[in-house]
């Protein structure tokens, strides 16, 4: 990792700007001579050679700059790239400690961008403390308005952001409860049916015993039951058409032998993989007078096994949902850790399953050989939630959600794509702006992608970009595989 470039400024020139020179700057053109004199006494001129770094993003904002001559560019750091936001040679443009007039609220004031001189440039410079004092002393009413605007926007964003998190938590909780309800209800139904089948088996066992079944015959029947259950466990899954044909065959066989309730038993035997050969083997091993009771007893045993499998599947589903919820919330885990990004993506998909619905096909292209990345996993799960939720809404319930992961140099890339209508070109540059949303009023706060941007870029030293055309919209999240340098 290369060391950050040092800011080497040429000391201020001796002398100061005259009142007429200051008045030629549009910011000062309406000031009185006394005010201009004060400014001239508290400022100075500074020359910076071509290519010189004037101020660096993230450094303490302790100076206010105005361009007198030359060309400058402002850049923001996005991942490993410096993205130019402004290039200008307009005399009088200002940058640096532009909010020094705000009262001290404990929030550090830092430069929001880096500035470089593209050719030999000259600046008028004031210390941030003098600029802030001047503004508060000369324009108290304007300062109250500006403070109210700046602080109000910050507080409003915090309130709306908190509200959005609560709404998202409520939606996720409702979805989780919905997902948990299905396997819980299935387990309850299977348990109730299992109780009835076990009672039926006890009754059939009593009937077999009352029928004075010979011990050898009873032992053979028990062995036959175990063989059938083992066969059912290994039976291949049938298609709906194959199962229907099998039921008809088994039902006809039972009707010919006057087995009572054949229409109830045939589906159980068909689902358990029993065919005519197996029924014929059962017929050969039991006395003709016991065939009806033997078939029913084996049927109860098979249905009992199927019900226990249903309960096992349902409780396993509940366990996996709880595990996904713990993974998603990062309960009992360190805030910062080395993680496999796939675990967070998968848990997010589970949590959002109710939103994705049946009309959207989820396709995963995972590179399982990717290295772990240093991250705050709970924050990254917010990113995956926002991107997947946006993709689902863009497709309006029908389409393909594609999630891919791959390596790109020293970064791990997560791509979340959808087949929706896409984002118009004139809006793509604004999607990460706070409060900007393309959704109808009341359906979006415009903070989801802004929060995602700040988590990825500011919190993890990565990058997030949008590529979009009709039928193929992708958000690309790049995360470094090494710890970002300290700020």
Automatic annotation (TrEMBL):
Q: Please give the Gene Ontology molecular function terms for this protein.
A: protein histidine kinase activity
Has UniProt tagged this entry with the keyword Transferase? yes
Q: Which residues form the Cyclic nucleotide-binding domain?
A: 27-135
Domain Histidine kinase stretches = 303-483
EC number(s) from the headed UniProt entry: 2.7.13.3
Catalysed reaction(s) here are: ATP + protein L-histidine = ADP + protein N-phospho-L-histidine
Q: Which InterPro entries match?
A: cNMP-bd_dom (IPR000595), cNMP-bd_dom_sf (IPR018490), HATPase_C_sf (IPR036890), HATPase_dom (IPR003594), His_kinase_dom (IPR005467), RmlC-like_jellyroll (IPR014710), Sig_transdc_His_kin-like_C (IPR004358)
- Keywords from the named record: Kinase, Transferase, Two-component regulatory system
**Chain segments annotated as coiled-coil in the UniProt record:** none
Keyword field contains RNA-binding? no
Q: Which GO terms describe its biological process?
A: phosphorelay signal transduction system
Q: Which PANTHER family match?
A: HISTIDINE KINASE, SENSOR HISTIDINE KINASE
Question: What is this protein identified as?
Answer: histidine kinase
Organism for this UniProt entry:
Krasilnikovia cinnamomea
**Organismal lineage:** Bacteria, Bacillati, Actinomycetota, Actinomycetes, Micromonosporales
């Amino acid at each position: 990792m290369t060391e950050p470039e040092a800011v080497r400024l040429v000391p201020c020139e001796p002398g100061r700007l005259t009142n007429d020179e200051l008045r030629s700057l549009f910011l000062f053109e309406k000031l009185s001579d006394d005010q201009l004199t004060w400014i001239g006494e508290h400022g100075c001129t500074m020359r910076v050679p071509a290519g010189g770094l004037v101020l660096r993003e993230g450094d303490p904002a302790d100076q206010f700059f105005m361009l007198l001559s030359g060309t400058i560019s402002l850049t923001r750091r996005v991942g490993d790239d410096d993205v130019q936001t402004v290039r200008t040679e307009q005399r009088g443009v200002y940058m640096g400690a532009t909010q020094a007039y705000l009262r001290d609220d404990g929030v550090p004031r830092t430069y929001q961008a880096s500035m470089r001189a593209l050719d030999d440039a000259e600046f008028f410079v004031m210390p941030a403390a003098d600029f802030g004092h001047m503004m508060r002393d000369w324009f108290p009413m304007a300062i109250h308005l500006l403070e109210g605007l700046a602080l109000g926007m910050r507080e409003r964003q915090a309130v709306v952001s908190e509200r959005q998190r609560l709404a998202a938590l409520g939606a996720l909780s409702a979805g989780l409860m919905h997902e948990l309800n299905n396997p819980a209800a299935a387990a309850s139904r299977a348990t109730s049916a299992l109780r009835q089948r076990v009672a039926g088996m006890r009754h059939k066992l009593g009937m077999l015993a009352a029928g004075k079944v010979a011990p050898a015959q009873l032992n053979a029947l028990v062995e036959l039951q175990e063989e059938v259950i083992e066969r059912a466990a290994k039976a291949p899954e049938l298609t709906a058409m194959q199962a229907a044909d099998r039921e008809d065959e088994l039902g006809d066989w039972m009707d010919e032998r006057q087995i009572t309730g054949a229409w109830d038993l045939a589906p159980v035997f068909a689902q358990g993989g029993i065919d005519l050969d197996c029924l014929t083997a059962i017929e050969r091993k039991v006395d003709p007078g016991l065939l009806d009771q033997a078939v029913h007893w084996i049927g109860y045993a098979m249905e009992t096994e199927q019900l226990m499998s249903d309960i096992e599947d349902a409780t396993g589903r509940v366990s996996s949902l709880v595990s996904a919820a713990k993974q998603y919330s990062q309960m009992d885990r360190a805030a910062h850790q080395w993680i496999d990004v796939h675990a967070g993506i998968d848990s997010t998909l589970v949590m959002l399953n109710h939103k994705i619905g049946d009309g959207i096909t989820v396709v995963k292209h995972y590179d399982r050989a990717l290295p772990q990345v240093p991250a705050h996993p709970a924050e990254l799960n917010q990113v995956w939630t926002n991107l997947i939720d946006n993709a689902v809404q863009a497709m309006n319930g029908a389409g393909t959600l594609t999630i891919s992961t791959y390596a790109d140099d020293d970064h791990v890339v997560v791509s979340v794509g959808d087949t929706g209508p896409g984002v118009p070109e004139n809006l793509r540059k604004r999607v990460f702006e706070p409060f900007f949303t393309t959704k109808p009023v009341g359906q979006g706060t415009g903070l989801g992608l802004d929060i995602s941007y700040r988590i990825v870029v500011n919190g993890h030293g990565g990058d997030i970009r949008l590529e979009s055309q009709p039928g193929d919209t992708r958000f690309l999240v790049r995360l470094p595989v090494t710890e970002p340098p300290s700020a």
